[in-house]
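User: tokens in, sequence out, please.
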């Protein structure tokens, strides 16, 4: 019985030490065009849903677009993530498209210095950053069309 309990205790300790600790970090958003009004939204994703399915983001923070440089402090419990920043000018919580219905008309930014490409937004693997990187903070520049 003692041997069994030691085994169970070992498994419990392994589960506790193997768990990902919560990490607080800062996302510094630069290049915000305050003249456009609206708000700046920061979406933190695991692989699932990145970058289009906002409802699948691990967390979302939003603040009025009042400064060219804005800072958001977030806490996550993951080993890797990708971040999307949206300058939501019209307040609808999604990327508004221009007259073509294809290209965005609002500012966007992505972790790992990724940008929109010819075939749309970057994939998760391109924008993904490890805990060692994001723990020191991330800088994301908003790019406008």
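Assistant: Sequence out:
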């Amino acid at each position: 019985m003692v041997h069994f309990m030691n085994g169970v205790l070992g498994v419990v300790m392994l589960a506790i030490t193997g768990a990902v600790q919560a990490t607080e970090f800062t996302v510094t958003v630069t290049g915000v065009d305050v003249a456009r009004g609206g708000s700046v939204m920061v979406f933190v994703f695991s692989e699932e849903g990145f970058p289009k399915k906002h409802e699948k983001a691990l967390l979302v923070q939003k603040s009025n677009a009042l400064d060219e440089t804005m800072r958001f402090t977030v806490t996550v419990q993951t080993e890797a993530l990708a971040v999307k920043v949206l300058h939501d000018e019209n307040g609808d919580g999604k990327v508004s498209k221009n007259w073509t219905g294809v290209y965005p008309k609002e500012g966007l930014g992505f972790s790992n210095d990724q940008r929109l490409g010819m075939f749309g937004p970057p994939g998760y693997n391109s924008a993904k950053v490890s805990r060692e990187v994001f723990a020191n903070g991330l800088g994301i520049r908003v790019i406008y069309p």
